[in-house]
Hints:
Structural class of chain A: mainly alpha
Largest sheet of chain B: 2 strands, antiparallel
Distance between the termini of chain B: 32 Å
Radius of gyration of chain A: 21 Å
Strand order of the largest sheet of chain A: 1-2
Strand content of chain A: under 5%
Strand order of the largest sheet of chain B: 1-2
Order of helices and strands of chain B: HHEEHHHHHHHHHHHHHHHHH
Number of helices of chain A: 20
Radius of gyration of chain B: 21 Å
Structural class of chain B: mainly alpha
Oligomer: heterodimer
Number of strands of chain A: 2
Distance between the termini of chain A: 19 Å
Largest sheet of chain A: 2 strands, antiparallel
Amino acid sequence: MLSIILLSAFGILLLFLGFLKNRALLLPATLLFLLASLGAAFTDWNGTFAYFNGMMVTNKLSILFTVIVLLSAFMVVALSSSFLDDEDAQPAEYYALLLFSLVGAIMMISFENLIMLFVGIEILSVAMYILTGSDKRNLRSNEAALKYFLMGAFATGILLFGMALLYGATGSFTVEGIKAYILTNPTGGNVILLLMGLLLLLIGMLFKVSAAPFHFWTPDVYDGAPTLFTAFMSTVVKTAGFAALLRVLSGAFGSMYELWWVILAAIAVLTLLAGNITAVYQSSFKRMMAYSSISHAGYMLIALVGLSPQSKQALVVYSLAYSLATITAFGVLLLVAKKQSNELVPAKPNENYEVFNGLARQNPLLSFMMTVSMLSLAGIPLTAGFWGKFLVFSTAIDKGIIWLLVVAVLMSAVGIYYYFRVVIAMYFRDGEGGAIRVAPFYRFVLITATVLTILLGIAPGLIQGLI
Amino acid sequence: MLTLSLLLFPALAAVLILLVKGNATRQLALGAAIVELALAGYVFATFTPDAQSQFGFDYAWIANTGIRFSAGIDGISLLLVLLTGLLTPLIILSSFRQTYDRPATFYALILLMQAALMGVFTARDGFLFYLYFEAALIPVYFLAALWGGENRIAVTFKFFLYTIFGSLFMLLALIYLYYQTPAPHSATITDFYNLNLPPKAQGLLFWAFFIAFAIKMPVFPFHTWQPDTYVESPTPATMLLAGIMLKMGVYGVIRFILPIVPVGVDAWGQTAIVLSVIGIVYGSIIAIRQRDMKRLIAYSSFAHVGLMAAGVFSQTAGGLQGALVQMLAHGINVVGLFFIAEIIFSRANTRMLDQLGGITRTTPRLTVYFMIILLGSVALPLTNGFIGEFMLLSGVYAYNSYIGFVAGLTIILGAVYMLRMYQKSMFGDANTRTEDFADVMGTESYVLAILCFFVFWIGLYPNSFLTLTQPAVTNLLQYMGQ
C-alpha cells in the first residue's frame, strides 16, 4: 500500500518541480518516482494484508496487477520525451496527473470496500479526461475529452446506483460482506435487487474497459487523445478495470456464477464481434488499435465467463502481454507518424497504415519490434500474446462453453487480418523517407518490451509460477 | 539429444547467416543443410525398427503444467524427417543459378522453415506440435510475400489467413484434450491416445483437427488458396510448400486424428474420404486444362495429396504405409517437377505450354531427367510413385471398392496431364523462345540426378523404408482398434 502513498506524494512533488525552469529534469524524476513505487509495491508481497480499516486488501494477485500497471506507466512515461520539445505542453502537470491516475488504478485493483472501487475509478477517470484533452489546440482532442467525460459521468452514475442497490440488498459495501450475504441466502433474500445491483455495477465497469455495447466512446477518444495517453489508457485503464471486475465477480459474486455468466458471455461475444469486425474496416492505424483494444476486452471477458482459479493466471498473463505489445505498437507509431506528419496541419499527424510503408528497409529494428508486437496481439505462438489467449481459452474449455470459443477463434482469425496489414505495409510495400532517428533510451524501452514479449512467449512459466 | 540437434541446428545456422551476411551466404546455407542431412541420415541409418520413439529429448517446458518440450522420432516421423533433411539442401542448391535480392534473409528463412518442419515432425507434446505447426508458416509466408510474383501480397495473405484459421480450431481441440487427461494434466500426445472420449466429443474433435489439416494438405473444398500461392511464390518456397509443408497435414491426420478419435473417424471418415476423392478427380481434371506448368503441377499435387488423405482415412495398414512412402515419393517428385518448370522458365521466359515445344532437340540430359521424374509421378512400376500409390489404392479399395475405383482414376488422369505437359513442352517444333535452349548443367544436373536416384531407389527397393515404418503403423492400428 506504500505505493499509493508514495505516488500521491510524488505527484504533488512533481507539480512543484514544474515551477523550475529546467524541464529536462521532469522525465528522469518521474521515472525514478515510478521505480520507487514499483519497489514499494513488493513490500506487501508475502501474504494478504488489509489496509485503511479494511477498505483495501492486497494479495499476490493485486500486487501483480499493480506491477503491470506501474510497468506500463513506466514505459509510457519513458516514451514521452516529445513533450519536452513541445512549447505548448505542460509536462509537469501531465506527469503529475499520470501518477495520480495510477493511485486510482491501484485502488481499483486492491479495493475491498466498493466505495474504494468508486473512488479509484473516479480518480483514474478524472485524470484521464484531462489528459485526453491535453492537446488543447486540437479540436479532435477537445471533442474526445468532452465525449469521454460525458459518457464517463453517465457510467459512473450507473455504477453508483448499482452499488446503492447492492447495499440495499445485502447491507454491506465490502466484498466479503456481499459474499457472506449470498452464501447465507442462496436462493431467498433480495435476489432481484441483488442482480439489478450487480448488473448496474457491471455496466459501469464494462464501460471503463470498453466492452460492447458500452464501447462507443472508445474509437473517438483513443483517436483524438495524444498517442501517448492513448497508450496509457488502453493499457493501464484496461488492466485495472479487469482486475476490479475479477475481484467483484470472483470475490463477491462467485457463488452466483450460474446467474451471471450467460449475461457476461453474451457481452463477450458482442464485444468480440464489434471490436474485430469494425477494426477490419479502419484505414487509420490508431483507430484500428482502438477497436483492437475493444476486441481484447472481449477475450479477457472470456476468462471471467470461465471463472475459475485459472482465470487469475489468465488475466495476469493476458494483460501483461497486451500491455507490452500495445505500448510497443504506439511507441513505434509515435516515431513513424512524427516523421510523416503533415506540415500544413501540424496538429494532425498521419496515422494511417501507409505511414508504415517500407519501414523494414529504412529501419529493420523498429519494424521487427512492431512485427513482434502485432504477432503478440494476434496471438501467434512464441509471443506472450499466445499464452494469454491460450490461458483464456483454457478457462472456458474447462467450463465447457464451446460456442463462445468458436466465436473467439473465428474472431482471432479476423484479428490476424488487420494486424498483418501493418506487417505487410512494413515489409512488402515501398515507402519513402530515410531512416528514423531513435533516442537511445526510447529504443531501450521498446527493445525491453519486445524482449519481454518473446521471453514470455518462450517461457510463460516465468510469470505463471508467481500466482 | 539427436532430435534436439536436428531442431536447433538449422535455426542457429539461420541466425548465423543473418549475422554474417556477405557473399558466401548460399554456400553457408548449403553447408548447414548438408550437415542437417547428415544428421538425418545418421538417424535413418541407426533407427531401430520398432514402435518406440527414439533419439528423444524431454524437458519440462512450463513448470507444473505437464506441457513439455518433448521431441523424438518414431517410425511415422522418420521418413518425414528424412524427407525434410534431404529436400532442403536440394532446394537450396536448386536456387544457385538465380540471384535473390537480400540473400542472407532468403536463405535464413529457408533454414528457419526447415527447423520448424523438423519440429512439427518430431514433437511428442501436443502444444509443441501446435507451436511448430504455426511457426512453420511464418518463414514461408515471408519467402513467398517478399520474393514472389506480381500478385504476391494478396495471394500469400489469403494463404496465411486460411491456414491460421484452420489451426486455431486445432488449438481448441488440443486444449480440450489437455483438460481431459487425468490431473495433473498432460499434453503428451501418447497420453491423448489413452483417453476414452464420448462419441459426441470425438465427432467435434474430428472436425476441429480435420479442418486444420485439410486446409494444410489441402483437401477439397479447402484448397482454394493453393494454386495461386504455388504459382506466385518463388520456386524454392513453392518446393518447400509442396514438397514438405503439405505433408504436415497428412502427418497430422496420422498422428492425431486416427489414434485420438477413432470413433470420430468411424463416424466421419467416409465423408473425409469422399472429399479427398472428389479432390483427386477435380484436381486432375483441372490439371488437364492448364497452360501454366507451375499451375498444372500445383493441381497435380492437390490430386496426389487427395489420394494420400483417402488412404490414411481408409484406416488400413496398406493405406497408412502407402501414405508414408508416398509422402516421401511425392516430395521428391514434386520438387523435381517444380525445379524443371523453373529451369524452363529461366531459359524460355515462359511457363505457358502453348508457347513452349521442341526443347528435346538441344537437351538430352533434361529430357531424360524430366522423363524419369515424370514417370515417378505418374506411378509407373519400378518408380517411387508406384509403390505409394499402389498401396494407397489397395487401402482405399479394401475400405470401399466403389470409392477405390474412382480414386484409381488418379493413375489414368495423372498420366494424361503429365504426358500432355511433357509432350507440349519438350516435343514438337521449336519456336523462337526455345531454339537455343541450353541443357541443364552444373548444380542443376546434381539436383536432378540426386532426385532421379531416389525415384529409383524407392521404386526398386521400398523395403529399406517400409520395414522401418511397419512397427509404428501396426502400433497405431492397435490404438485405433481400441
